[in-house]
């Protein structure tokens, strides 16, 4: 299978590990000369908070999740790394529950691989709080690379 599109899914908790996520996506995308889709997913509450923090005027501005994602610092950090390595990318934003929204973005982008980060959690923690990475691993339309937080 040829890799043409790799979706790197990030969220609000990934700011402290953009280097680690970039390294993982470069390992699969660069040798294949694949395009990376930098996808920042926000819950409805996170999205509202980001709109306020970035001072979008909801009365005047046409607010596009892709534009909001493109203004997020985690995406800026990843763009700089991909630029440095000459890897093509697009930026996409999504609003909704993290897991299903990542799966939807992967489908709509025609992703051949998804790269997603996560943290080690106890079985009880997964059962009580759910797991974005687990949802993506089980539901994505393509293979998934899981990057565990160090």
UniProtKB/TrEMBL annotation:
<protein>
    <submittedName>
        <fullName>Nucleotide-binding universal stress protein, UspA family</fullName>
    </submittedName>
</protein>
<dbReference type="Pfam" id="PF00582">
    <property type="entry name" value="Usp"/>
</dbReference>
<dbReference type="InterPro" id="IPR006016">
    <property type="entry name" value="UspA"/>
</dbReference>
<dbReference type="InterPro" id="IPR006015">
    <property type="entry name" value="Universal_stress_UspA"/>
</dbReference>
<feature type="domain" description="UspA">
    <location>
        <begin position="4"/>
        <end position="148"/>
    </location>
</feature>
<dbReference type="InterPro" id="IPR014729">
    <property type="entry name" value="Rossmann-like_a/b/a_fold"/>
</dbReference>
<comment type="similarity">
    <text>Belongs to the universal stress protein A family.</text>
</comment>
């Amino acid at each position: 299978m040829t890799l043409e599109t790799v979706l790197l899914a990030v969220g609000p908790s990934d700011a402290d590990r953009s280097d680690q996520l970039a390294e993982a996506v470069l390992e699969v995308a660069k040798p294949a000369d694949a395009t990376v889709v930098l996808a920042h997913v926000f819950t409805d509450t996170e999205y509202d908070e980001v709109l306020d923090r970035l001072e979008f005027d909801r009365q005047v501005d046409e607010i596009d999740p892709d534009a909001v994602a493109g203004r997020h610092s985690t995406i800026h950090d990843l763009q700089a790394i991909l630029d440095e390595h000459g890897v093509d990318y697009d930026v996409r934003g999504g609003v909704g529950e993290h897991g299903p929204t990542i799966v939807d973005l992967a489908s709509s982008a025609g992703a051949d691989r998804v790269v997603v980060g996560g943290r080690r959690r106890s079985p009880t923690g997964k059962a009580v709080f759910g797991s974005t990475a687990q949802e993506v691993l089980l539901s994505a339309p393509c293979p998934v690379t899981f990057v565990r937080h160090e």
